[in-house]
Amino acid sequence: MKTIGLSLATLATLALALALPASGAAQSVEALQDMTPEQRREYFHSLTPEEREAQREAWRAEVDAMSEEQRRAHRDAMQASREQRRAAMRENWDKLSDEEKAAIQARREAHRAERRANREPMTEEQREAMRQRKQEHREARQHAGDGPPEERGKGNE
Question: Which residues make Cβ contacts (< 8 Å) with residue 52, sequence separation at least 6?
Answer without folding.
Answer: 44
